[in-house]
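Model: You mentioned two targets. I'll fold them one after the other.
Researcher: Yes, keep them separate.
Model: Target one:
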Amino acid sequence: MGEEILSSAVVVSVREFDPNKDRESVEAVEKICEVGPSGKLSLFTDLHGDPICRVRNSPTFLMLVAEIDNETVGMIRGCIKTVTCGKKIIRQTKSAESISNHVPVFTKLAYVLGLRVSPNHRRMGIGLKLVQKMEEWFRENGAEYSYMATENDNVASVKLFTDKCGYSKFRTPSILVNPVFAHRVKTSSKVTVIKLAPNDAELIYRNKFSTTEFFPRDIDSVLRNKLTLGTFLAVPCNGKYGPGPGPENWAGSEAFLLDPPSSWALLSVWNCKDLFTLEVKGASRVRRVLAKTTRVIDKAFPWLRLPSIPNFFEPFGFHLMYGIGGEGPEALKMVKSLCGVAHNLAMENGCSAVATEVSSCEPLRFAIPHWKVLSCEEDLWCIKRLGEDYSDGSVGDWTKSPPGFSIFVDPREF
């Protein structure tokens, strides 16, 4: 995509990733960048030989590599989709009554992820150049906003995007992670859980969640993706949907939306295990032995339902819960049951963890089981408006809008 002289002696070229010739060099840079601090626990990612796996399922995506003298020294990934950035009120008159409905306001949003620069080539402006080139592609494809996610304490990344690239701190969601035990989690006998067909799930999501910030307009593509293992609806088991654990009286989403129960909850499960695996390195022998002991006890005596630490010290997979929502006084209980279903599904699929990402203001987060030591209570999303010539639309400048109670985390970008 072009060359630029960073200094009198260094010329960097940025071009599109070529899987036929760049795969090995990109993997080498990834490994170098993931070397953790000595004596501390670090999380490593194995992309299974597919450097674009984390954006491959997005509607539009691109990966760029930076080279100096034909040596790969950095890379960046980006994708574009249409999401909800706010809502507006539509008033209709029916039978002499005025009815107000909230409808979503959509915008074209770009996402930056996977920025890496080789440690030997940092502080040379390569990261900045990769971001700028990616933003050029965003603008060419009509994106109005761009955002990125990073750890709140990643000072170098935050400084690059806020000080040099013009991004502003926007949202601080929480990543909640729970280990998968060797025993099944028991769910409430007072809750009926129904696995929905994709069309039923889509109808409920569009009706109940379409005005949620970051809701993807192509939710149908997400729900029908082979990595979505199912969407699960929890309702009271003593209500209209039958007294037992099965969906005997399920009449479909249209009937549900016309007359929903007093409380209900919904979530979907995404299989990250088939995209990439993680591994914790830097653990002491004592930590490993203690973790193994908990697993041995849990496996030998599953009826005790003791919490155990999976083997995070070898490559492991996880599932992501997304689209979590619900209504009613017992919604928290419903969400807790759905999390139990997600845990048991992950156990059946050989995963070691279940994760989700929710707004720090999300009321339902209190029902989501998680271990604090595994979770990130304050992730950081930064956003940038890509052009001042865009219309302010119904919500004005999205970058200046206050946070809502909920966000919709797209599993294709986690």
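Model: Target two:
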Amino acid sequence: MKIFLILSLASIFCFSLSNSIEDDVMCLQGVKNSLSDPANKLSSWTFTNSSVASICKFQGVACWNEKENRLISLQLPTMQLSGEVPESLKYCRSLQTLDLSNNSISGPIPSQICNWLPYLVSLDLSRNALAGPIPPEIADCKFLNSLILSNNRLSGPIPYGLGRLNRLKTFSVANNDLSGSVPADLASFDGPDFDGNGKLCGKPLGSKCGSMSSKSLAIIVAAGVVGAAASLFIGFVIWWWFFVRSSSGKGKSYGFGNGGGFKGDSTWVELLKSHKLIQVSLFQKPIVKVRLSDLLVATNNFDSENVVISSRTGVSYKAVLSDGSALAIKRLNGCKLSEKQFRSEMNRLGQLRHPNLVPLLGFCVVEEEKLLVYKHMFNGTLYSQLHGSGNANSQYGFLDWPTRLRIGVGAARTCLVTPCLSTTLYASKH
């Protein structure tokens, strides 16, 4: 019975050993077949010899001992190898060191690598063309002392699980495309181990995550200055367009043309002509009704020669009716009141009588055009008397200062009823 038990255990051991040897051979065969070897560095790997420890003499291969084909190390650096990390490594389960550095290995790092090589102590895949993220499953390699993944094209964050590898003494992910923050448990490694990753931050790199570099800050400040300047420029253009340009456009209506109307803007005169039969609303009913056509004739179609004065609120024209009576017709400029409001205001103003105000005799509304009818003042306006301009018979300086003072006090006592309309002060005869 004892002899049978011993023989059974021996047979099981021999079978396991045989399977282990076959697995390691399959591992190396798969590595040779899956990698491109333009320099024939792996040409010495021949598998015709089935003797014990035959594969241990292969270049870059080391076994646990010389009496069995159980691999402990596979080091193939700088051999111009290309292709992806061989899946056949899963048959080298006893492997502790894997070095494929300084080749042209591409593709991702297999997420199953720690399942393939559970006893891995040293992993060097640096200076290749590996891409994609660092698989978090590498944290399952509990015996790792050295992990070197520098000089690849790896992207994404550094897995926080790597900080739980208590045996890790050598670590480098320099010169990749990694981003995010360095795990706090890896902060004991030096800054050069993380350099070359533009979007990586953390204590080893001397930069706080969420803070900006001086270059980024300079770019943001410059962009802010340019944006502010552009906003000011756009604001100035809008202001110029709506105020200066519109004001200058209104100013053109005060300019003089050759014949009827205004220079560059005679459309409003044409509008009045198309409604010339409209009656002028007068507060004191005359014997003969006055129509808009009478005002057009009396002002020679609002010819510039008949302009008495132009102001911010409008232009006043001298109008001589067929009976010889003289009126002042003021075309309002920019009155925002609706027609109903405007008529209401006019009816109220028509009742006002003040010694310092030119009496409002009537008005006329044609669509957006609003005309006021005043009594014509032959002595001119207060402005012309004070400055010696227009129809004033005096020159500047004719009025003495006591007279000017009385005029100022009288003007201050005058009540201007509506902001839309500008009234004209009487010119003093004294």
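Researcher: Noted. Anything on target two?
Model: Helices lie at 2-34, 113-116, 214-252, 267-274, 292-298, 339-349, 382-387, 401-412.
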